[in-house]
Amino acid sequence: MKPRATPTPASGGPATLFFLALAATTALVALLALPFIGLLARVTPAGILVHLAQPQVLVALRLSLFTTLASTATVIVLGTPTAYLLVTREFPGKRLLEVLLQLPMVLPPTVAGFALLMAFGRAGFAGRALDVLGISLPFTTLGVVVAQVFMAAPFYIAPARAGLGSIDRRYLEAADTLGAGEAFRFFRVMLPIALPALLSGVAMSAARALGEFGATITFAGNFPGTTQTMPLAVYMAMQSDLDTAVVLSVLLLLMSFGLLLGLRSAPAGWLGIQARAGTPGSLSAR
Amino acid sequence: MAGAMAPGAIAASPPASTLRVFAAASLSDAFGEIAQSFERSHAGTRVQLNLAGSQQLASQIEQGATADVFASADERWMDDVRAQQLLAGPDTVFALSRLVAIVPRTNPARISRLQDLGKRGVKLVLGARTVPVGQYSRIVLANLSKLPDFDSDYARRALANLVSEEDNVKAVVAKVQLGEADAGMVYQSDVTSAVARYVRVFEIPAAANVLARYPMAIVSGTRSPDAARDFVALTLSPAGQEILKRHGFIPVPHPAP
Amino acid sequence: MLELQVRFQLAEFPLEARLAVPIGVTMLVGESGSGKTTLLRLTAGILRPDSGRITLGGRVLFDRDAGVCEPPRARGVGYVSQDDTLFPHLSVRENVAFGLHAAHRPAAEVRDRAQRTLERFGLLPLAERRPRQLSGGQQQRVALARAVVLDPEVLLLDEPLSALDLATRRALRGELRRQLESLPCATLFVTHHPGDALAFGDRIAVMERGRITQSGARDEFLRHPGSAYVAEFLGVNLVAGVVAGRAPDGLALVTVGDRTLAVPDLERDGPVRMLIHPREVVLSRQPPVGSARNVLRGVVEEVLAEPPGVENVRVILAGRPALAALVTRQSAERLGLKPGIEAYASFKASAILVLPN
Predict the structure, then answer these.
(1) Is B65 within 8 Å of chain A by CB?
(2) Which CATH superfamily includes the segment(s) C2-226?
(3) Which chain A residues are within 8 Å of B167, Cβ to Cβ?
(4) pLDDT tens digit at each of 357 positions of chain C
(5) Which one of A179, B8, B28, B255 is most buried, by most CB atoms within 10 A?
């Protein structure tokens, strides 16, 4: 029998707190749901299909899918070892690194895009080095991926770190005494147990990359097929062709919704994982 | 700064009213000055400038944004708003402008003349097709192709060099100024003294250049019709025309107030 | 042979322990908080001693002065902790095979050894289940199997039965004893439960406030408990009294509570602590007539089934002090010993062991 997450108080006592909470939740739900409903109400499935056929829409869709896939893969490959190091090691400057990794989350995207230009633009100090290697980032699809990685990475690293850090220390001790090397322990014990948290992080990061706008348009530019991802296409379409803008927006909405829903619940279920997490003996309770 | 109360006007007794002026991005400096002048002579009124690409302003007005005056960088978007029956009266052209080509002062693509915009590998940045300056740029390129000094496929080659389409002219300026773009096309009024430090200007032959026409109109449903009328009048007045001229625009020959 | 000599600062006192663990089962007993678990974790390599030396056979696992500190995975030490640490995402079989996979053994060998160990611990019917589908006792068996399959040189068991309810614990004890007896390794078994200590354990070591205060063969312990804690732990009668005088035959007369005992081999005066083994106490319903010098009368307070087997019962006689006697169940039934019944306890003077001061 699964234990309840938090105990509910015994019956009796005023229900005031419950109703206050209910009122607050209703207000929040209304604020969040109404814009989505307003958007969905403006389209019909037939309308979507018609506009989907437009090359502008298809091109933006394809570019968004490709860049989001690439940036999310990059974030996973680079972010997972980073989270692992943060969880298992102490080192000088660790606090600074943590702050650095959270910075893109709080930075206005346009500011981020501008900063990226300063560093990786043609005149930027890193940009000049890349130039020598023949790599140019502004106005390229690669630049879009870089902007997405920059903005979305913290959304993966934070939950990944939390997930890995909340693994009960005793599982890891058991793995150690059973002779597991560090890599074996990571892939066979930590990763499977923390998988729900990691997948949740992937969903958040992918959704953020999919919706990335400010840094992209400032750093990578706006050109159909190369740098005009769906959010940029929506922005441009909104200024002249509202129907296309609505269709693109609805598509983005549905894709983000699907990402969050799909990656959060399903896999944990069919993996049958019910590990203890967040107990006092866990790594993160150092 | 537009929007701030002029000193001395604090003692005015009538409650402050706001005049919302939607103006094309290229007008930012000129209208900033006109707005200040307006506030000085109309104590108690604040001018709120909304600057963006004309296509975006038109879209906002059509979506119900509150505006009193609309100043567009081309007639296409003014007509678009008129077609939605959102204008209170006829529009008047209050300024003209021409395009210039600019390259960063460092000139990474070694552009020495306009023809070089068609060279392979040049990173060209223009306004998007829906933005007035973008539309004008494409017309200019087509016109240049017809000149004897230019190849007939010059426009095609130049447009093949397009790497980004910005949603307002100031973004084009920024990309060139930062050195990210090799070249761009903007209004001559955009090459302010501040910008001029970072760019080189290439004049476009008059035979190929466009004469951008800037119309202005009062938006229907305005809560401040008198103030709106006064603002338009100020823009068309010799004083207003002088301000526009100083910021690089071409004054209208016989402005009709 | 595992040899420990370590120092480690705990919150309230330093742990300074010296212990040799030969092949076979050594019970490590002590109160909660005395440092038993810490000692195991130091041996396993999960904690690092402040100073000292740990050797296993000829291998040095830790030597502060020589700068040696082997990580847990290199020690060849099996560790089964109190709570369930079975990997939740793996089946029973995969859990048992975990260490073999970690050592990168060939697939055939892994399959083979895992299968045999599952069989040995009676886990085959449960092999494909997940830990959460097992009972507490089953989980402990899997945890043990998982450690044993690796043929460790040392097996550390940290109160493996403590999380189980009494009935399950009793049931598992016998099975566990059989399993441990057939292992070729040195086993250190921590418990705070006296029944466990007496059931297993060729050897017992006692830990008090971070120090090993006594260690040796079990029978020695039962004959000569070294401290009050051990005596109580082992269920031996420990009484304290004051010398009140001498009997004509040279025996000392010691006042204990409201009784007087005749105690031999007691030269000194003043306060004295003595031990009477429950086995030496003879019970009867009538005042006994015999050679025993000490006869006490009291009311039966409790009759307890005595672990590990249930042939004996422990009868507690109320009084100051209370006395425990060990008799066979048949005797208890024959005498009709039940709570509330008056009975006589008698024991020879020679059955009293005087503890050194």
Answers:
(1) no
(2) P-loop containing nucleotide triphosphate hydrolases (3.40.50.300)
(3) 222, 235-236, 239
(4) 899 999 999 988 999 999 999 998 999 988 878 889 999 999 999 999 999 999 998 899 999 999 999 999 999 899 998 877 999 999 999 999 999 999 999 999 999 999 999 999 999 999 999 999 998 888 988 999 999 999 999 999 998 887 777 677 767 777 788 888 888 899 999 987 766 777 676 788 988 888 998 888 877 777 777 776 777 667 778 778 888 888 888 888 888 877 888 888 777 888 887 878 888 888 888 888 888 888 888 888 777 766 555 567 777 777 666 788 888 888 888 888 888 888 888 888 888 877 665
(5) A179
- Contact A/B (≥3 CB pairs under 8 Å): yes
| B162 residue type, one letter | L
Contact A167, A190 (CB under 8 A): yes
> What ipTM was assigned to the predicted interfaces of this complex?
0.79
B9-96+214-251 belongs to which homologous superfamily? Periplasmic binding protein-like II (3.40.190.10)
Distance (Å, whole) CA B72 – CA B93:
9
CATH architecture of C235-355: Beta Barrel (2.40)
DSSP character for C152?
-
According to CATH, what is the number of the domain A45-271? 1.10.3720.10
Q: Which of A139, A238, A243 to mutate to test the interface with B (most CBs of B within 10 A)?
A: A139
Name beta bridge partners: C134.
Answer: none
In this structure, what token pair is assigned to residue A154?
């913290």
Between chain A and chain C, the number of residue pairs with CB atoms below 8 A apart is 73
CB contact under 8 A, C46 and A274: no
Residues of A with CB under 8 A from a CB of C: 168, 170-171, 173-181, 184-185, 188-189, 192-193, 271-276
Q: Residue B201's closest CA among B211, B214, B188?
A: B188
CA-based nearest residue to C56, from C34, C78, C38: C78
